[in-house]
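Backbone-to-sequence.
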């Protein structure tokens, strides 16, 4: 990738979180559970798609879980671009945590939850480590970004936890510090730009005025 070094803007990666689901509202951990968008979630995706279309994206990739796929479909409808679906972009598998509310997780798995929040490598609910999520998701994002034209833009439609770990990996941050990247509101996005020394964070949780983050890792 040489466009940034030669004076161009460089390639951009837009990591876009899916719209609202019923489990988000209930603060219920979705993980890899396949939950659909609410009517509000569809409307969020439609609104955001109109904004993101202004970036003139060159390609769209998405998690194959329906909440991400339906979100991506709204951008595809506006831009006419196809969507490439990848199971590697799914949310973190969190075993027995999935389906539990935030309060239930703390009540039943408090020590595990606290260790995760401290930045320790934890298999939440017996599921994936955050580094394992990055191991599967980041290479797909980088491969697709590598296919962009100079100054091209890739939109990645995924999930809060997967986006955070992917950003952390692409920015070459230590995994214990990934939690420092705040959560994304439903249908908001972060933008990474290509620089001379690698990827850098240009925007985070963009798209609206600040709103509460519901169901961070899902």
């Amino acid at each position: 990738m040489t466009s940034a070094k030669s004076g161009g803007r460089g390639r951009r990666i837009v990591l876009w979180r899916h719209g609202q689901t019923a489990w988000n509202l209930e603060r219920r951990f979705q993980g890899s559970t396949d939950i659909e968008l609410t009517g509000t979630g569809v409307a969020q995706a439609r609104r955001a798609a109109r904004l993101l279309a202004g970036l003139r994206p060159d390609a769209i990739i998405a998690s194959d879980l329906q909440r991400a796929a339906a979100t991506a479909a709204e951008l595809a409808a506006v831009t006419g671009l196809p969507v490439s679906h990848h199971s590697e972009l799914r949310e973190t598998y969190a075993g027995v945590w999935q389906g539990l509310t935030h309060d239930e997780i703390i009540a039943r798995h408090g020590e595990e939850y606290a260790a995760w929040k401290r930045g320790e490598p934890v298999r939440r609910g017996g599921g994936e480590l955050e580094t394992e999520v990055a191991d599967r998701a980041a290479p797909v994002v980088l491969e697709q970004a590598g296919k962009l034209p100079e100054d091209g833009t890739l939109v990645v439609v995924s999930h809060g936890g997967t986006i955070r770990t992917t950003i952390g990996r692409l920015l070459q941050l230590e995994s214990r510090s990934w939690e420092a990247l705040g959560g994304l509101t439903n249908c908001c996005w972060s933008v990474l730009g290509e620089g001379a020394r690698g990827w850098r964070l240009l925007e985070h949780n963009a798209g609206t005025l600040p709103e509460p983050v519901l169901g961070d890792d899902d």
